[in-house]
From TrEMBL:
Annotated protein name in UniProt: SDR family oxidoreductase
Pfam families: NmrA
Residue ranges occupied by any NmrA-like domain in the UniProt entry: 3-246
The keyword Glycoprotein is annotated on this UniProt entry: no
Listed GO MF terms: NAD(P)H dehydrogenase (quinone) activity
Entry's EC annotation: 1.6.5.2
CDD domains found in the cross-reference section: TMR_SDR_a
Length: 286
């Protein structure tokens, strides 16, 4: 069995490769791909096949996906308005290679959510259906790391900021989502499924601040801003305008409950409780 993982040069894809290895998939049966494979030489040294695959370059995809039986298609980290065209090329190449399953990493409630990120995931899910692809949709909520990576600056200022109001997010660690992807790829009965994946305990950003405060032993609050104020603040902090807009738009989605799920799908797939917010914060502070 040969399993291709796209985005393996990135964080979720690499963790997915690690999870496949832990589940006993032989290294030689895993094809780890990205636009620049120099960063995954360590995986090649462990026997994983590494190949260049750029969704903008169909020839690279035909070569990278040759012989693949299954694929984890990690959504690309490129501007949202470029994602669909790139995902379509990846899906076309996977189908041309004859894969029997494509597990696509989408986003919570992608069928109905009103954010620009959800739009691009919904369009990709639609394309998978249109092509009759044997797909499994992994609708991931936010990464806990979106918050834990902010801890150094949050500790400096004693505050998280956002525009999410009282909305609750079912964030989970990348590692838990990666493990779920590996389970789907290595067990039967998932084709056609749509999994709404998220952490067991959803939290509001005020609850995030309270948990961070308790774990760090320092006062940390949550300051809620309007979306415009958040864009301004992020821009002043050097965040590119497109990304600042997407982040503020996503917080509005969060405020509407669009990153929440109580499906239990993640817990069921990985066969254990998901990593808690407090544990993720403690790990990040160590
Ligand atoms: N759920 C969330 O909270 C959340 C947050 C951020 C992003 N995301 C989405 O989830 C994805 C995975 O997250 P992550 O943290 O692992 O992101 P990441 O570390 O930035 O990795 C993104 C991966 O996408 C690959 N990629 C980008 N453009 C590509 C293209 N044109 N063709 C082929 N590969 C391409 C990159 O390859 P190279 O490095 O080789 O260029 C990289 O391996 C992201 O790409 C994004 O769509 C989700």
């Amino acid at each position: 069995m040969s399993i291709v993982v796209t985005g393996a040069t990135g964080q979720l894809g690499r963790l997915t490769v690690e999870a496949l290895l832990r589940r006993g998939v032989p290294a030689a049966d895993i094809v780890a791909t990205g636009r620049d494979t120099t960063g995954i030489k360590d995986l090649a040294d462990r026997g994983v096949v590494t190949r260049r695959a750029d969704f903008a370059d169909p020839e690279s995809l035909a070569a990278a996906f040759a012989g693949a039986e299954k694929m984890v298609l990690v959504s690309a980290s490129i501007p949202v308005d470029e994602r669909l065209a790139n995902h379509r090329r990846a899906i076309d190449a996977a189908l041309a290679a004859g894969v029997s399953q494509i597990a696509y990493t989408s986003m919570t409630q992608a069928n109905t959510a009103g954010t620009t990120l959800a739009d691009s995931h919904r369009a990709t899910e639609s394309y998978l259906r249109e092509r009759g692809a044997p797909a499994v949709v992994l609708r991931n909520s936010w990464y806990l790391e979106n918050y834990t990576s902010q801890l150094p600056i949050v500790l400096q200022h004693g505050a998280f900021v956002g525009a999410a109001g009282d909305g609750r997010v079912s964030a989970a660690t990348r590692a838990d989502y990666a493990e779920a992807a590996a389970v789907v790829l290595t067990t039967e009965g998932h084709t056609g499924a749509i999994y709404e994946l998220g952490g067991d305990q959803a939290f509001s950003l005020a609850e995030l601040a309270a948990t961070a405060s308790a774990v760090a032993g320092r006062p940390i609050t949550y300051t809620n801003l309007s979306a415009d104020e958040l864009v301004e603040l992020l821009a002043a902090a050097g965040v590119p305008a497109e990304l600042a807009g997407v982040l503020a738009d996503s917080d509005l989605g969060l405020s509407r409950g669009e990153l929440f799920t109580d499906s239990g799908d993640l817990r069921r797939l990985i066969g254990r409780p998901t990593t808690t917010l407090a544990d993720a914060i403690a790990a990040a502070l160590n």
